[in-house]
């Protein structure tokens, strides 16, 4: 017989709100505080109170959606009254009602690009192909920002608005994707982006990509199944189009329950809405419901986390936990040989991870750096200059590139972008030492071997190294934090929101550890 689960006072308060009161809510759920459990328990209470209620739970990704579906099934909470899916899946379902069967093609924009350039003369076609990376990235981000969609809060980015395109290009640093010998001025580039963006939208009647799954149903006003309740998981990481999708799923008197942790918003440097929960509160006038007791981390670990987020607290039955520090020399000599695939090494930057990875590999300890997309970014930079084919040529070019880009971003008041460029270039310098007399293709192979992703449902077979950003949403018994006190906060963080992002990173780093948190201190400056 299953032991009856005792709800905390805070969980009881959430259930009381959704079953007995009116209006919208933001559940401010700290790390490891049982937010998924609270969503499902609240859903069960709603159904018990009113079996006719229609509920949608928008999970952050497919793996979480599958897990929540399984837990809902265990409580006899089933489709269609209770629908659990990703926001992308919900958008796709609405779009199919409008356009019927459609083909999903992840590389749609890439394929469309080559069709699109056919309109130009043969000479210009070859030239336009050099801009492929810029156009693909810019149009992809325009979709995520919702150009052409009227949204809540009077936010409406007109497709033809050059100023909005320029602001987005500046914010994301997209000029970095332009060819070295760019001859088009910004106005002409934006004109071409607008034409390509419209061409991609036109194609949505029969072919869509991942970004289209959310943008297209909004742009074409697709019909949504209206819900009494919409729960948004990881609401602190929503952008404007995801939030608008959730709003359009609500009945006129429907209620939005946004669940997230404002202190785990760590993607402001990429242009994500780091104030997403504040935006939701402004639009909906939601009440705040706290969820602050963590069941994940040992008590000593939570004492560390409270330096950044004072209201998080450990459940009384949690283990004591352990927090300690060691030097890099002792770590390499005494601890690296004992590491297992169940351990993780986290760092604010990728450069120290790359340095450590090669030391570990040379000592016979298998490892990889989490983040195939990080590796792809390094490959893209390594292949940026077509005329450069050897590693020595590349190193020389990267040196001048780093200096000019660093100066440019600092002059624009974007120190976080300057640090990102610096970190990428320094990573390439370190990896290139393995193929110092080789060519760029040799370098690309080294990068591919070093970076990867843990497949869904699988455990790593070797030791994982990861940036703090890539570790979000995961947990380990033992976490080694590389250069924590030397690299956090970043010296580039000067504005209030940048400093807050650094504090959030520190909090995310600490709360990945369940039993043991070890600070590995650098002896020299990185």
Task: Please specify the SSE layout and strand pairing.
Blueprint: H1 9-20, E1 25-29, H2 35-49, E2 55-59, H3 62-74, E3 82-86, H4 87-99, E4 103-104, H5 108-116, H6 122-129, H7 132-145, E5 150-151, E6 155-156, H8 162-172, H9 186-202, E7 207-208, H10 212-219, E8 227-232, H11 240-248, E9 250-260, H12 276-284, E10 287-291, E11 293-294, H13 299-305, E12 313-314, E13 322-327, H14 328-335, E14 343-347, H15 351-362, E15 367-370, H16 372-382, H17 391-411, H18 415-432, H19 440-450, E16 451-452, E17 463-467, H20 468-471, E18 476-482, H21 484-487, H22 496-510, E19 513-521
Parallel strand pairs: 1-9, 1-10, 2-3, 2-8, 4-7, 8-9, 11-12, 13-19, 14-17, 14-18, 15-16, 15-17, 18-19
Antiparallel strand pairs: 5-6
Helix pairs in contact: 1-2, 4-10, 7-9, 10-11, 15-18, 16-18, 16-19, 17-18
Structure description:
It is a single chain. The longest helix has 21 residues, at 391-411. The strands form 5 sheets. Strands 13-19-18-14-17-15-16 form a 7-stranded parallel beta sheet. Strands 3-2-8-9-1-10 form a 6-stranded parallel beta sheet, with helices on both faces. A two-stranded parallel sheet has the order 4-7. By secondary structure, the chain is α/β, with parallel strands linked by helices. The chain contains 22 helices and 19 strands. Helix 11 (240-248) links the parallel strand 8 and strand 9. Helix 10 (212-219) crosses helix 11 (240-248). 47% of the residues lie in helices and 17% in strands.
């Amino acid at each position: 017989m299953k032991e009856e689960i005792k709800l905390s006072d805070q969980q009881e308060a959430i259930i009381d709100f959704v079953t007995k009161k009116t209006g919208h809510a933001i559940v401010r759920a700290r790390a490891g505080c049982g937010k998924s459990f609270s969503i499902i328990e609240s859903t069960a209470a709603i159904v018990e109170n009113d079996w006719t209620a229609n509920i949608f739970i928008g999970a952050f990704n497919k793996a979480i959606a599958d897990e929540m579906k399984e837990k809902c099934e265990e409580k006899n909470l089933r489709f269609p009254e209770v629908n659990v899916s990703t926001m992308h899946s919900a958008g796709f379902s609405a779009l199919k009602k409008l356009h019927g069967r459609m083909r999903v093609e992840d590389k749609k924009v890439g394929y469309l690009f080559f069709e699109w350039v056919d309109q130009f003369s043969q000479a210009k076609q070859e030239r336009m192909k050099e801009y492929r990376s810029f156009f693909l990235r810019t149009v992809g981000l325009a979709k995520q920002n919702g150009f052409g969609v009227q949204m809540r809060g009077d936010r409406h980015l007109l497709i033809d608005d050059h100023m909005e395109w320029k602001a987005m290009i500046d914010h994301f640093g997209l000029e970095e994707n332009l060819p070295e010998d760019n001859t088009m001025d910004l106005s002409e580039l934006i004109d071409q982006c607008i034409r390509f963006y419209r061409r991609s939208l036109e194609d949505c009647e029969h072919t869509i990509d991942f970004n289209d799954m959310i943008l297209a149903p909004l742009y074409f006003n697709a019909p949504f199944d209206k819900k009494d309740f919409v729960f948004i998981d990881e609401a602190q990481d929503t952008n404007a189009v995801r939030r608008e999708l959730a709003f359009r799923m609500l009945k006129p008197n429907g209620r939005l329950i946004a669940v997230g942790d404002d202190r785990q918003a760590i993607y402001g440097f990429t242009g994500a809405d780091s104030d997403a929960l504040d935006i939701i509160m402004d639009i909906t006038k939601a009440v705040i419901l706290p969820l602050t007791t963590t069941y994940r981390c040992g008590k000593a670990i939570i004492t560390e986390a409270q330096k950044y987020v004072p209201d998080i607290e450990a459940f009384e039955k949690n283990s004591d936990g352990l927090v300690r520090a060691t030097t890099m020399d002792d770590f390499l000599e005494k601890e690296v040989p004992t590491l297992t695939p169940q351990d993780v090494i986290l760092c604010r930057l990728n450069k120290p991870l790359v340095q450590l990875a090669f030391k570990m590999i040379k000592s016979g300890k298998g490892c990889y750096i989490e983040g195939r997309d990080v590796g792809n970014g390094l490959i893209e930079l390594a292949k940026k200059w077509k005329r450069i084919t050897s590693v020595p040529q590349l190193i020389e070019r990267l040196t001048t590139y780093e200096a000019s880009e660093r100066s440019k971003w600092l002059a624009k008041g974007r120190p976080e972008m300057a640090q990102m460029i610096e970190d990428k270039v320094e990573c390439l310098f370190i990896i290139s030492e393995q193929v110092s007399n080789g060519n760029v293709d040799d370098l690309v192979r080294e990068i591919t071997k070093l970076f990867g992703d843990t497949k869904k449902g699988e455990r790593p077979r070797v030791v994982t190294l990861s940036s703090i950003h890539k570790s979000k949403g995961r947990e380990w018994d033992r976490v080694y934090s590389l250069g924590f006190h030397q690299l956090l906060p970043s010296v580039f963080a000067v504005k209030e929101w940048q400093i807050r992002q650094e504090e959030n990173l520190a909090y995310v780093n600490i709360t990945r550890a369940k039993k043991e948190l070890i600070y590995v201190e650098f002896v020299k400056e990185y």
